[in-house]
Specification:
Layout (H helix, E strand, L loop, with lengths): L2 E5 L8 E5 L5 E5 L2 E5 L6 E5 L2 E7 L9 E6 L2 E5 L6 E5 L7 E7 L2 E6 L3 E6 L5 E6 L3 E7 L4 E7 L2 E7 L2 E6 L3 E6 L5 E6 L1
Antiparallel strand pairs: 1-2, 2-3, 4-5, 6-7, 7-8, 8-9, 10-11, 11-12, 12-13, 14-15, 16-17, 17-18, 18-19
């Protein structure tokens, strides 16, 4: 039987948990961390970050067990499927929270709240390409007496792999098709 990997929106305790699907018992847990400063003492310390997405991936550390990839804050992290130990971490591919990840062949595709779309190599986490959609969209907001322009961020909310292409949805009301080979934009569609 396969284990179940789930994420919880908790920053006080480990928030990636693998559960045995037969017994319901915890197999392992992982708490993604980032170095920061305590707001009360100004001392440097580690903080647990939220985990936004999780994907099971084919074995990448040659132990014949499927592994796990998560997005947490602005990091993509590969974990061993049997014990949750870090295989690699990429914490500089994106500059904002990574909301969504998806697997495409030998790449992990990640999309951030700032409209950054990146591909990292699944074996070592190295950046393969970057594709940035339009960071904001200007919309007109109308009331009874005024019309104002407002910038809407284009956070990437969902990533769908279709063959060798990637379909993404963004907060700016557009769908984008991106080449999975090199990250170039193929087309966009306004909803």
């Amino acid at each position: 039987s396969k284990d179940i990997v789930l994420i919880t929106f908790d920053k006080q305790h480990p928030n990636v948990i693998a559960i045995d699907s037969n017994t319901g018992r915890e197999v392992w847990k992982y708490d993604p961390k980032v170095e920061g400063y305590d707001p009360e003492t100004y001392a440097s310390r580690e903080f647990i970050t939220y985990t936004w997405d999780v994907e099971v991936i084919d074995d990448i550390n040659d132990d014949d067990i499927q592994d796990v990839v998560i997005s947490s804050w602005y990091s993509v992290i590969a974990l061993e499927g049997d014990d949750g130990e870090e295989i690699w971490i990429n914490d500089d591919a994106c500059t904002h929270d990574i909301w969504s990840i998806e697997i495409l062949d030998d790449k992990i595709i990640a999309g951030s709240e700032a409209g950054e779309l990146v591909a990292v190599n699944k074996e070592d986490g190295e950046l393969e390409w970057t594709s940035e959609i339009k960071p904001t969209t200007t919309v007109l907001l109308r009331s009874l007496t005024t019309v104002i322009e407002r910038e809407i961020p284009s956070a990437i909310n969902d990533i769908i792999v279709i063959g060798e292409d990637i379909l993404i949805s963004a907060d700016n009301g557009f769908l984008y098709t991106i080449s999975g080979d090199d990250g170039t934009k193929n087309d966009d569609y306004e909803l």
